[in-house]
């Protein structure tokens, strides 16, 4: 199964988590693809069969600048071929931001909803105020994702 990993990151943490996820998914027998500067055409050329979004949050609950263009073009076009595909989101944030905690991840969940991508696992929220080991923290959730995508 081909899994497109869409990542948004300001300082590189989410990008590291995305890279780690790609390694684990590939080790589990999936074909994971991750390009932090992917365009809509790049994603469509990969012909994904599942999605994983990994994004941090900046500003007041906003998506990082490197994910904004892809987010906007997906939203404008809503590719019909992606309807019904399985997907899941890892949101990175900091709970001290209160209401906007993991707002970037929430935006990707909403986008998946508009696309008709099925959320197969509740969003993982990685809180920078609680932990400095986000890649390791994501591992149990990624193991659940592997099971969900196989099922
Ligand atoms: C200027 C700035 C604004 C932020 N705004 C939010 C926010 O609104 N909500 C949130 O949950 N986290 C917020 N964060 C926390 C980051 O999302 C968090 O530290 C994350 O781990 C950074 O990941 P990155 O290195 O991939 O950008 C903000 C951080 C900075 C520096």
TrEMBL record:
Residues in coiled coil: none
Entry annotated with the keyword Transmembrane helix: no
Signal sequence bounds: none
Catalytic class of the enzyme: oxidoreductase
Name by which UniProt lists this protein: MioC protein
PANTHER family with a match to the protein in the record: NADPH OXIDOREDUCTASE A (PTHR19384:SF128), NITRIC OXIDE SYNTHASE-RELATED (PTHR19384)
Known cofactor(s): FMN
GO CC entries: cytosol
Name of the gene this protein is made from: cysJ_2
Top-level division of the source organism's lineage: Bacteria
One Pfam family this sequence matches: Flavodoxin_1
Keywords: Electron transport, Flavoprotein, FMN, Oxidoreductase, Transport
The Flavodoxin-like domain, residue ranges: 3-146
One Gene Ontology molecular-function label: oxidoreductase activity, acting on NAD(P)H, quinone or similar compound as acceptor
EC number: 1.8.1.2
UniProt cross-references to InterPro entries, sorted A to Z: Flavdoxin-like (IPR001094), Flavodoxin/NO_synth (IPR008254), Flavoprotein-like_sf (IPR029039)
Statement: the UniProt record of this protein carries the keyword tRNA-binding: no
């Amino acid at each position: 199964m081909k899994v497109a990993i869409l990542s948004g990151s300001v300082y590189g943490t989410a990008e590291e988590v995305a890279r780690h996820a790609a390694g684990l998914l590939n080790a589990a027998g999936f074909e994971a693809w991750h390009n932090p500067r992917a365009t809509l055409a790049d994603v469509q050329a990969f012909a994904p069969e599942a999605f994983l979004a990994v994004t941090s949050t900046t500003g007041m609950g906003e998506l990082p600048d490197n994910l904004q263009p892809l987010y906007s073009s997906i939203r404008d076009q809503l590719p019909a071929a992606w309807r019904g595909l399985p997907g899941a989101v890892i949101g990175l944030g900091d709970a001290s931001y209160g209401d906007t905690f993991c707002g970037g991840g929430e935006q990707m969940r909403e986008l998946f909803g508009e696309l008709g991508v099925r959320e197969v696992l509740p969003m993982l929220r990685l809180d920078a105020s609680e932990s400095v080991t986000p890649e390791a923290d994501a591992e149990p959730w990624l193991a659940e994702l592997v099971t969900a995508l196989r099922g």
